[in-house]
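dude i think i finally got it to work??
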Amino acid sequence: MERLMQYVWQHRLLLPADLKTVDGRRVSVIDPGRLNTDAGPDFFNAKVRIDDHMWVGDVEIHVRASDWHRHGHDDDPAYDSVVLHVVDRDDTVITRRNGEVIPQMVMACAPEFNQRYNELVGRAATELPCAAELAAIPPIYVSDWMTALAFERCHEKSDRILDMLSAMADDWESVCYITVARALGFGTNGEPMERLARTVPLRILHKHADSTEAVEALLFGQSGLLDRAPADDEYAASLRREHAFYVHKFGLSQPQPMGWKMARMRPPNFPHRRIALLAALVTGGYRLLDDIIHVESAEKAIEMFRIPLSGYWSRHYTFGPESEGSVPLTISRPSAIGLIINAVVPLIMAYGQRHGDDDMWHRGFQLLSELPPESNSIITLFTSAGMKCRDASMSQALIQLRRAYCEPRKCLYCRLGHRLLAARAKR
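look at this
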């Protein structure tokens, strides 16, 4: 409740005609001040006119006036600078340490505002409580917010890469390898794929990059998936023998459970196929970073990952009997697009940011605008509410909106939520 009151004060959503102190003096808010996120009064350097007298100082907000005493403000010198106490319930008079009474005002806001706020934040996580009103928001407000959200999500991804880079002594190739591995997990198996890549460092794979079987032995052996392979699978048995040799040669730790998920997953998306593709990318030498940072178009980027699998994985989805039907030789185009969104674009942006090259950052964003939007439950949720999703930059914005604002109930910090709430506050 107090946070909601701070929001109303900060954004001037009070009803001007009803602004009076509890003893009947007129109040005009000239400047609500600066929100304080640390200890001390809620707002610094506010300017309020009470009757004909201008006050410059701090503003404190409480649900009950008596919270002033409960929080110990009456003995705290930091609160002597408070010039207005804003409350929801006027249940006591409050004073400074020297006994001076501090002007007090009951917050005046339209009854519909609190009701609407509760409607927005009180709904089930699977719902979109503002769905019925989204289509009525002027497109310019939606467009501006979507652009900001897309950049926000891109910054989060590139910052994660830069943090990894710092932890890995600026080894860009290894960071690229881990980033691509994680993206190959496509959300469901992203964490296990990253753990696998960290378990089998690129420097070790480089020593045997001339052999597909050696690279697969290292990756599948450390993944733990070889342990589940049928005993009569000759290829799996060969990989086991090679893996045992490399464990001894490189002093590899025995693999811990990775937490692979396969339930309700289509066979082409099984982790076995993703690991096989990672092995194919490494075989012959992993030089993907240079290709990524110099890629000229989205189509060229897609081609980098549509590498045909050969040998065992041209006939299998997992270890065991061959598939009865035809097996796709490479990942699907939508899957390749997912890799561009979640690996290529963040790597380009992080590389540009690290080297002070703004053009690279914008080129990464341009790639997103060249790609079609993703198709998932989040995008469906918003498009069902009338929001058009034209490209991957927009779908990334909608994912950011859902994950960072809708699900944690941060409607107060969402520009669309703010607009809907502001319209109710002054009715």
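Residues 139-167 form the longest helix (29 residues).
im so relieved honestly
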